[in-house]
């Protein structure tokens, strides 16, 4: 069969995608995490690969199967996620879709924390995790295009615009995760795409696989225009 080159517009491009939650150990049997399903990040990795890109997916623990045609690296903590992402560099495209735990327990003792008769409940001190998106956006081997997500409740555009500037990335895909929006952990997303150049694009509510394909088309157009 004759392959239409327009159907594999990212042939020769390399990409790294983060997906799923991270798990931050409290002790050997307990952890802090979140409800991220990994659906959106995995769909993006798959769509990039279908468009011809060589993709490394760095994923926290999820139910989703490893996408075909993608190199999947399984990690647990944010620090492991950052190390795996840096090991995948250099890449042309980075998409950070993971729900990275913002904090981790300061101490993760090698032994299980035990209840003691009459003792008070333990207080778990937290420290901030590395910001993978921000690190990529300021990296000496910065990808040509760095894309992040923003899950917000409140004034979506203002909060996401501020986040885009703070992170130093190129694009932010913002979505409203207010209670009742059904977005977090759901099948679909309603995206507001903001660019560092000041563009803003409201997408209709789409299935997460459709969001992934639309993003990949947008990335291919952008890189093609940039190459001109
Ligand atoms: N992100 C990341 N590493 C972190 C935290 C976030 O790579 N330690 C990425 C996420 O993958 C996402 C983007 O940053 O692409 C925004 O994540 P979000 O949680 O919305 O932003 P935060 O900067 O953590 O701010 P907050 O949670 O306070 O809104
Ligand atoms: Ca966060």
Strand and helix map with partners:
Elements: E1 14-19, E2 24-27, E3 30-32, H1 39-50, E4 54-59, E5 71-74, H2 78-88, E6 93-96, E7 103-105, E8 126-128, H3 132-137, E9 145-152, H4 156-167, E10 171-176, E11 188-195, E12 200-207, H5 208-227
This protein binds cytidine-5'-triphosphate (CTP) and calcium ion (CA).
The site of cytidine-5'-triphosphate has 15 residues, from helix 3 and strand 9.
Keywords: Decarboxylase, Flavoprotein, FMN, Ligase, Lyase, Magnesium, Metal-binding, Multifunctional enzyme
GO molecular function, one term: phosphopantothenate--cysteine ligase activity
Function: Catalyzes two steps in the biosynthesis of coenzyme A. In the first step cysteine is conjugated to 4'-phosphopantothenate to form 4-phosphopantothenoylcysteine, in the latter compound is decarboxylated to form 4'-phosphopantotheine.
Q: Can you list the ligands bound to this structure?
A: cytidine-5'-triphosphate, calcium ion
Measure the end-to-end span: 29 Å
Unreliable residue runs: none
Q: Rg from C-alpha positions?
A: 19 Å
**Count of individual beta strands:** 12
Please give the order of strands in the largest beta sheet.
5-4-1-6-9-10-11-12
Q: Characterize the largest beta sheet: strand count, sense, and whether it forms a barrel.
A: 8 strands, mixed
**Structural category:** alpha/beta
β-sheet strand percentage:
25-35%
Number of helices in the DSSP assignment: 5
Pathway: Cofactor biosynthesis; coenzyme A biosynthesis; CoA from (R)-pantothenate: step 2/5; Cofactor biosynthesis; coenzyme A biosynthesis; CoA from (R)-pantothenate: step 3/5
Keywords: Decarboxylase, Flavoprotein, FMN, Ligase, Lyase, Magnesium, Metal-binding, Multifunctional enzyme
GO molecular function: phosphopantothenate--cysteine ligase activity; phosphopantothenoylcysteine decarboxylase activity
Family: In the C-terminal section; belongs to the PPC synthetase family. In the N-terminal section; belongs to the HFCD (homo-oligomeric flavin containing Cys decarboxylase) superfamily.
